[in-house]
Amino acid sequence: MQRILNAIRAFSLARRPRLVAVGLVLGLLAIAATPTALAASDDAIAQVTRHFLMSQAASLGDDVGVELKSDTSRLPECRSPQPFLPRDGVPQGRVMVGIRCSNDEQVRYVQATVSASVRFLVAATAIKRGEQLSADMLDWERADVSRRPRNALDDPSQAIGKVITQRLTKGMALRGDRLRQPYLVHRGESVTLIAGGEDFTVTREGEALNNGGKGDSVRARMPDGKVLRGQVDARGRLAVRY
């Protein structure tokens, strides 16, 4: 009986190393396969999202950067990821990207931050209200797109020759909604109105009822009391169209 027990014990000891080895191999394969599959899916989502945002934000300025804020490793498997923006417009600052997948109808969402270095025009010196801008009054400032003031101008031709409607201190941004064309027509002064058709042109004098620069619409009272509206041309006349 003792000899039988000893034989069984020896047989078990002989098989144990092989059983342990097989178990280790299977365990390593399981550990290796799962993270690799997940990593491939996660990398695809991350790469596609970054590429998509970089292309969408290319027009923002220089040094466009994208930083993912979501942990893509927690997202379900996604085959053939197709990114889209839930909201229209150029992405900037904190954004959300939707991801559609071919393997199911569930939309994944990834948060990211889009940054870009942009430059815009600022006042090189203090400028009083009503002053007409010249090139030496302008300077440049560079900042992240998220800190660019609303309606800030980035083209000197949009500012030079125009008039400031609000006082600016040195370094303040030049905004399009705070500039106007210089007045060519002044309220209360005489103005020439030109009306014409295919075969005729009529010129009359009237009194301007409001100020206006080139391209502005201005009303004028005629000698008979009738009020006409015309568009200011480059010579300060009102072109009236019938």
Helix percent reads 10-25%
Total helical segments: 1
Mean pLDDT: 84
Distance between the termini: 124 Å
Q: From the alpha-carbon coordinates, what is the Rg to the nearest angstrom?
A: 36 Å
Sheet with most strands:
5 strands, antiparallel
- What percentage of the residues does DSSP assign to strands (E)? 25-35%
* Number of discrete domains: 3
Describe this entry's structure for a reader.
The chain is an alpha+beta fold. It has three domains: 2-115, no CATH class; 121-180, Type Iii Antifreeze Protein Isoform Hplc 12, CATH 3.90.1210; 183-240, Roll (SH3 type barrels). It contains one helix and 14 strands. The chain has one helix at residues 2-56, and strands spanning 62-68, 82-84, 93-100, 108-123, 138-144, 163-164, 179-180, 183-185, 190-196, 201-208, 212-213, 217-221, 227-232, 238-240. Strands 1, 2, 3, 4 and 5 form a five-stranded antiparallel beta sheet that branches. Strands 9-10-12-13-14 form a five-stranded mixed barrel. The model is unreliable at 11-42 (pLDDT under 50).
